[in-house]
Backbone:
């Protein structure tokens, strides 16, 4: 009787088990009698890494002249096989290999295609990338195994999965229109899919405005805008002008000349960016000569802020006494959104009622947004809501109302003013309120 030691028996069992697993997991065809034709039974490991040794098991494999992997320049000729016999071929996985099935070319012109795809365990690395681009420009990334990248995510979660070009050492991708400054997230596939973040930050070139001249300016005149990267501007939007201006008098990287529309109002300009959904706003207001400056009040109630003990007691849907959206004079105005029951009011309430002696007129300016044309404002003085006088709003323009105190009941003191919507919902801007 032949006796095997326990260690030899265990080693023999493990070897047979490993061989069984290798063959069963990677078997490409059933065993067939040797009829002189080449046949592939199995290959593996199917989760190899670049540079690993692959083994192809079959019959008549000495007829194989090359093995073509998926990927550019990923064919291994028989002269580069590590070994080749009738039943076994060994070779190294090429560096440019990608996931896919293999093709064994035969000397008679036929070929054998593996039923199982080869997957590769790779680790993508980034060596460099374009650091600064304009919207719509190409971003070039260099590194290793970039042919395995399947997605590039820009800041704000803007994903790109279709590339301009892709190879093992270079990836070119177009910068999306609405991305922002930030590192890129590179996602790749393989035996173990993963993602890496670039060490460098991609920055987008933006138009910067440094001056607008002349300012103030007449409507219909040419406005000269100076700054940097102004050749990226695709449109200029003026306050109260429905459509942006897209046809310019002239344009260069440092200067943009545009004609001021006739219905423009004072405010900041908004610049559209080529190949982008982002916009840039001018740091300064454009002031128009068509609206003459208003004289200072001998008694101010609101001029950029509440004055002379007056407080905000408004009961509108929303209101902002520090708005810079639409300004008649100075730097701020009151933005009031009227909604709800349609009878809401912007309210100026005095901590201490002021004597009206020496004053004859209450004056204020109103700008109406969309939907205010012809709408009425009740002017309620000192809580007298019975048949208050009214003013009519002009949509898309500033209107200054000067109401004689006699039309307001000739109050001896002024403790409260309410500009109340008369059954409508919309948004208005109020500025420069006081007594004359």
Residues:
């Amino acid at each position: 009787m032949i006796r095997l030691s326990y260690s030899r028996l265990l080693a023999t069992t493990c070897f047979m088990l490993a061989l069984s697993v290798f063959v069963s997991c990677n078997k490409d065809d059933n065993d067939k009698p040797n009829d002189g034709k080449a046949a592939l039974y199995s290959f593996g490991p199917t989760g190899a890494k670049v540079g690993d040794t692959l083994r192809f098991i079959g019959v008549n494999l000495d007829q194989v002249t090359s093995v073509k992997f998926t990927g550019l320049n990923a064919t291994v000729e028989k002269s580069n096989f590590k070994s080749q016999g009738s039943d076994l071929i060994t070779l190294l996985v090429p560096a440019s290999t990608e996931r896919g099935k293999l093709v064994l070319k035969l000397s008679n012109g036929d070929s054998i295609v593996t039923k199982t795809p080869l997957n590769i365990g790779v680790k993508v690395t980034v060596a460099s990338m374009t650091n600064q681009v304009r919207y719509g420009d190409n971003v070039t990334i260099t590194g290793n195994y970039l042919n395995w990248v399947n997605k590039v995510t820009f800041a704000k979660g803007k994903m790109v999965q279709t590339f301009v070009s892709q190879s093992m050492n270079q990836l070119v991708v177009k910068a999306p229109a609405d991305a922002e400054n930030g590192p890129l997230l590179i996602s790749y596939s393989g035996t173990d899919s993963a993602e890496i973040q670039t060490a460098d930050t991609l920055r987008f070139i933006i138009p910067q405005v440094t001056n607008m001249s002349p300012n103030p300016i007449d409507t219909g005149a040419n406005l000269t805008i100076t700054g940097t990267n102004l050749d990226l501007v695709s449109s200029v939007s003026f306050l109260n002008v429905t459509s942006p201006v897209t046809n310019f008098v002239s344009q260069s990287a440092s200067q943009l000349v545009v004609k001021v529309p006739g219905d423009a109002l004072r405010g900041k300009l908004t610049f559209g960016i080529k190949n982008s959904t982002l916009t840039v706003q001018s740091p300064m207001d454009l002031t128009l000569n068509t609206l003459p400056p208003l004289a200072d009040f001998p008694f101010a109630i609101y001029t950029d802020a509440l004055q002379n003990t007056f407080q905000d007691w408004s009961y509108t849907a929303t209101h902002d006494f520090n708005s810079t959206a639409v300004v008649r004079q100075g730097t701020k105005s009151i933005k009031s959104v009227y909604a709800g029951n349609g009878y809401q009011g912007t309210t100026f309430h005095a901590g201490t009622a002021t004597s009206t002696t020496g004053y004859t007129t209450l004056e204020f300016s109103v700008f109406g947004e969309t939907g205010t044309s012809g709408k009425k404002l009740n002017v309620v003085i000192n809580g007298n809501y019975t048949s208050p006088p009214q003013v009519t709003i002009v949509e898309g323009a500033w209107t200054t109302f000067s109401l004689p105190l006699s039309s307001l009941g000739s109050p001896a003191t002024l403790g409260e003013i309410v500009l109340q919507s008369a059954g409508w919902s919309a948004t208005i801007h109020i500025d420069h309120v006081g007594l004359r």
